[in-house]
Design goal:
By secondary structure, this protein is α+β, with helices and mostly antiparallel strands. It has six helices and eight strands, in the order βαββαβαβαβββαα. It catalyses: a fatty acyl-[ACP] + S-adenosyl-L-methionine = an N-acyl-L-homoserine lactone + S-methyl-5'-thioadenosine + holo-[ACP] + H(+).
């Protein structure tokens, strides 16, 4: 299940958030060699892990197997403050537009070939479920250009914001990706069920008692 963590309930997910920060460090620093993000404590945290961030965690048996972060486009985010060169025109801004960042899946739970892994499908489905319920219809993504075709196949309507540019050792492209009910149906079709992936919020008393 995908659990949404915000400042209001983050105290209920202290252990899971620690796992998430360490997963981020393992993926982005150890694997992808984004050495600027390295920290001695092995936790990848940046200036956008603030009161406005929405964290989404895939948790199974107490283990965080996948993670992603959503940032409002109306506040400072990667495209506005770190990678503005990726946007050649007017930067997309609005309450219905959020930025998708720090997507990562634990080794052993990633896709092989073209099919999305169950964790990856759930993370993407979580964005769409959350967005449809929250009046959000578009995400900003800074990504490898090879992801373009995959997003289109998942029924995201993608629009490049500029040409790919080198960021570190990788080509990175900024896009907007809009979604609707058809996107969710497509993701459900691919995983073979229409069950909700977002976990229902747990009562605070019950969570603390556990």
């Amino acid at each position: 299940m995908i659990h949404i963590v915000t400042p209001e309930n983050q105290h209920l997910f202290r252990d899971e958030m620690e796992q998430a920060y360490r997963l981020r460090h393992r993926v982005f620093v150890d694997e992808m060699k984004w050495t600027d993000l390295a920290r001695e404590d092995g936790r990848e945290i940046d200036q956008f892990d603030n009161a406005h961030a929405v964290h989404m965690l895939y948790i199974a048996d107490g283990q965080v197997l996948g993670y992603q972060r959503m940032l409002p486009s109306t506040r400072p985010h990667l495209l506005s403050d770190v990678l503005p060169q990726l946007c050649e025109g007017e930067r997309p801004v609005g309450p219905h537009i959020w930025e998708w960042t720090r997507y990562c899946v634990a080794p052993g739970h990633r896709e092989r070939g073209r099919a999305l892994s169950p964790v990856a499908n759930a993370l993407l489905s979580g964005i769409v479920e959350w967005g449809l319920a929250s009046g959000i219809s578009t995400i900003i993504i800074e990504m490898n250009p090879l992801w373009l075709l995959r997003l289109v196949q998942l029924y995201f309507r993608t629009t490049p914001l500029g040409l790919p540019q080198k960021v570190g050792d990788e080509d990175v492209l900024a896009v907007t990706a809009s979604f609707d009910r058809r996107t969710l149906l497509r993701l459900q079709e691919m995983r073979g069920n229409n069950l909700r992936v977002l976990a229902e919020p747990e009562p605070t008393v019950r969570r603390l008692a556990g």
